[in-house]
Amino acid sequence: MSLRVRLPRASSQAYRQFRQQPEEVEDNEQQANGAEAEAQQQPEQPAAQPQEAAADGQAGGQAAQLAAALNDIKTRDSGGVLEVGPGGTSLSKLIGQVQAGQLNAAAAIRAVRALCDSAISSNWHGKRKDAAQAASDLLDEANELLADFEEAAAGQPAAPPPPPPPEPKPEPRRAALLELPPETFFLSSEVVRECLTLNIDSSILVQRRGGWPAGRKRKPEGAGGSGRRKGRRGYNPWSPELQQQLATVLSAALSGPTSPGPPQDEVAALPPALSALAGHLRSSQAGEQLQSMGASFSNAVGMLQAGAFTDFEELLSDCREEGMALVEAVLAAQSVDVRRGRLVALIESFVQMLGSSIESLLNKMRAEHKAQLAAAGLADDSDEDDEYPAYLPPCILANKEPFKGGDWRKTPYIPRPYVRLTDYDIVEPEMGAVIKRKLTTKKHGGCDGKHCLSRTDLGTYNEERAGFNSLCSCLARNTECDEHCACSAASGCLNRSVTARDTVKLGSDVQEVDSWGMDCYVRRNILDAVLESGAFGPWTAPDYKALAAASPAEYAAMREATRAPGGGAGASPAVAALPPPPMVKTQPTIKEEEEEGEEDGPGPEVKQEVKQEAAVKQEGPPATPAGARMAAVGEGGDAQRSAAVAAALASPPPTPAQIAVEKRVADWLEQVLMPAVNRQGANGWDLLAALRDVRQRAEEAKDEQGLKAAEAVEARVKDVGYNYFRLHPKGVGLVCQRAGGLPPLTFVEEYFGEIHTPWRWFEIQDAVKRITGDELPDFYNILLERPKDDPDGYDVLCVDAAAKGAFASRMSHSCTPNCQAVIMACGGRLTIALYTLRHVHEGEELTFDYSSVTESEKEFRDAICLCSTRNCRGSYLYFTGSRAFHQVMNTKHTFLHRQVILARAGSEPVTQDDWERVKRHGLGESALGSVEHGDRVPDWLVKWTSLTCEFIEEEESHLREELLAHPLGIYNEITATAEAKGVVNNRLQNIVITLDKIKRVLQAPNQPQGPCLRPLTDEETLEFLWTGPKAVSRRVLKGCIATLAPAAVAKSFAAASEVGQLQAAAQEHNGQLLEGLRAMCALVLQPAADVEDARSKLRQLYAQLRGLDLETQAGLTAAADLLLLYASTQRWMTCERGYRTIVSSPVPLNLEDLTLDRAAGTHSAEAAAAMLARADAQRAEENGGIEEEEEEEEEQQQQQQEPSGGGGGSKPASRAGSMQDVSGAATAGSEAEGGALASALRKVYRPLYVWGQLSSWFKQTVNDPTASLSAERRGTVSLPDLESAFAGSKAPYSPKDRADLAEQLEAKPEAMWRTGTLWTFKNEAKVYGSPALDAAWCELTKSGDSPLPAVLAELRSAEVPPRMQIAAAGSGGGGGATSSSGGNGKPAKPGAKKK
């Protein structure tokens, strides 16, 4: 079985958002206390000698000036934040000590800074952000006021240190990477970067408001640039004058309430093109958002004014860095969090808009200069080593492959230390029995011993069948030979390596190294450079103009049409879905420049950014700088472009000679160039260094083809610059260093790690997300899938090798791997074993396909693959949310269909067909439980599994047809069948994971075992519709009386619950009721014989309500429309109300394991609690507008008062250090913060969890599926409360609302009803049903006719009050009864006077 899923984990940047640590707070307090102690020690110094009298007098004057400066600071401290310090210190006391001569200038300045530091820390962690900001401002002002005193004190001899305190016993601190001076908290960011060997987030530090000093150049941190110092001697348009003008542009674009902007005369003096650029940046969506956020980019502006940037890439890097710091500041200051990704996208959009405009301007200036030289008959004096050329080769202009944008990292990632394992580590002993049972297999050997003695007979691995094409009957079933076989280890059996632990040897056969890779964009550029050079033979280039004009989807189809099988010259399959490369430019002609003119605005590059920005508004934040430029098939283009694309698509297939050339080029890149890149170690980013290595070896081996290929790529890099040939770090990889390489089917190692059941693994993931807010994957985890052919059936376990594992877990991903992970049965146990698929050459990196999937589109877009191979997909993730994979589910397995399946499972028996279907999909006792082990699932859950598998079978056939019908023809019979089978495998994984989660809840003590959803009995339905105290009929009657009768009458009827009480109220107030109300009372008081009679009477009640609405024009149209839905519903259901809330034991989570950056250390409970609050606020914001069902919440709160512990045990995890960090963090912070962190480590299963999880069984990353359930059932299975339809509701019922209702029922019956209307969904009765659900039931069971057409016809033909028809026409709602509908106005009651 191929591994189709690897699960998300926190990324290496998990804790970059954390602010100050607890140790820092303690240090700050100690520093303030130290200053106080120093002040107390000062009077004990020896008296001054007579010859020092003059100096003392001068010092006294300085003391007076210092005291005056401190008094100035005190005056500015209007809030008194510096009057309450640790140990009783305060600014007033410090002033007194200075005036008394007890503190010299140096000691006083340190004490003031320590006092400000303590005030910032205490107020920040005390949630007093305004006070913390005030203290920070006072610190800035103190630094300015005391700067002269500090300089003077620097020339004086240092005062003798105070005597050490008795018996100092400082609390032990964890070893830091580098000890910093005690003033670290006040150093500017660039100074700290110089002290540390690691890059740190500048938002961790408190920066001065003015940023870095203007003109003080900082070293760029691996972002942008070519890695070369460009010492231009000729013409360089990037002049100090241009930078000063750009400073004005940037200031004007960001001017707002907090940033006044440059003087108007400077703006007016700008050239037209720059003036237009400033206006465009300012009016763009990103610019407006940055203005509202108070962005100023002060550091970038200051350096522009000083002309200190060597190129514009450094400017963009600074702007991006300041923007990210602004994002952190905004997120920290918001009481309700906003989406981080959207803010980051705004920064990227603005920076790229600025960069593309500057690049276009520089190109234009260079071209103009070159034309002037040509006109004067002079030679071109431009720099030949220019990194940003005005001309790019056609192949690069046509390149639309996925590109890894953002800052270019040129340093390897910090290796994650791990404990070496020789077996799977069961982290929690209480789960050991279940895990060991799932790791046990009944598969065993039994071969005749004739075909396991040679590698040829052992065969090869077949990915399509997820097994070996082997003559050995054992290996053909992914099983090692054992005692049941005729062979033996002594006889030379080669199929026993896993059992014998015959692995490759780390250090001799393979070696862990810092590995590097390239994205598809760079790979395409390298391939084209070599192919065009003819190094490996003649080659015919494609139509680059057509490729450049094509949309991404067309580009992929055109590349596929000319793809050489196995040659790697095609496009990555994800090219149409992933972000394209940065925008590139052509060399403009003089005529084009003259026609364009400066008065036309910022130029085509900026106009393109405007289009991108519009795409951002529609599609969400781009994943890369150019991510918003995504075109759909056929979007845009003229006849000429369409003809070129059509011609390219119709081009003949490649010739055998061309196929051979492309294959040789791909082999050279993978087997020669990439090993050379990895040999460069920390300098692996430098492609030129790797090419020099290749050239040297080619010269030694007299390899003319390889030498010519290297020279071609080297010339192309020098011609266009490094930015089109970026190499990126991938992390630690495994490289073959055995002489002669590794032969095929060599057993590499087992994939060991900490092992968890699925439900526990996802509890860990939920905790990680709650604490870090991070969703990016960290791929050290993998699924161990039980084989379907095992007698106990298919199931999964989750292996996490982040902290513990074997060296196989450090192997990189590749879309064209040379190794394969296989689930092997070895001596009665199951394991993940890695084998080589082919011969792996010396120096080649060992890789396997992670086969990872994600439900997040953002993750998919961010996951740019760096495998550098010929079949690279562009992304190292499969996107299960892709429309291609959800086409069938979105039509045949909607939310309504899933509710029908749940209701059928709760009412229909399990048949023999159900058991056969479940067995056909390989499900047995491991997933469904067994009576022997006491974990057998209820029959209704078996029925649900069977019905869901029935959909999977239908989806497989339909999905294959959908893929074959793709408009661009990118699927054939083989690929469509493989993709459909992959979707089926993924669906099956989600079923067994969901079953594991449901079993976890149902196995809790005192938990009901009944179905989560079941149909109402006839008696229950009759009570709900007609006879009950809160029956539909009585609620409608009471609502009408409350609307049309006097308040006293309405109150009398509202208090009546029984039939006798209603009769008495009707008789008592008979004369005060309208005739229509009296008729309704008479009808409601009639008994109903059965359910059909009750429905018939509801239809009569509906007719009376329509007539009453027309007669009174009192706004009863909404109630009549809603009653029509109730009366037309055929099936009613209810949910299980007895489920108890389950709270799990804390997950085994070590906070230090959440980050690759081990030097960051353990993080505080305060920071974790802050992140939890922000994550909760974001979830609340995302769920905004979805009204909670109040009664349901009350039930849950009552049940949560006495939660059930359930399975999983109550003891802390046995993993070393897991809970110690948590408890330590809790003690370091407040009880509330520690409690928040402890709560994050416990999973809460609410009473409706079973219903919610089964409703969204195909998604596993939703922390609380009950929230999605609450939203999705609005109007689909839970009709609105009848009370919300009557007058006095929160919003009137407009003609548009009625038209929307009809459209919803006709076009999107499976979609939740929109929010912001009059409808509420409290549903106190917890009864569910609707005509839309009936329609889905008829569709799935193929029984009866859908009631929706009749409901729609009645809704559209019903008469409504004339005044609503006039209102509908006036509102532009269109003609007809649909839009001429009744509404909820405030009616006039009978007898009331009208003004």
UniProtKB/TrEMBL annotation:
Comp. bias intervals (Pro residues): 158-167
Organism domain of life: Eukaryota
Listed GO biological process terms: methylation
Domain SET: 718-851
Region Disordered, residue ranges: 1-64, 153-173, 209-237, 564-630, 1168-1227, 1364-1395
Comp. bias (Gly residues): 1370-1385
Basic and acidic residues composition-biased segments: 606-616
Record's compositionally biased regions (Acidic residues): 592-602, 1184-1196
Gene3D superfamilies noted in UniProt: SET domain (2.170.270.10)
Biased composition (Polar residues): 10-20
GO MF term list: methyltransferase activity
Listed Low complexity bias regions: 30-64, 1386-1395
Protein name: Histone-lysine N-methyltransferase ATXR3 isoform X1
Lineage per the UniProt record: Eukaryota, Viridiplantae, Chlorophyta, core chlorophytes, Trebouxiophyceae
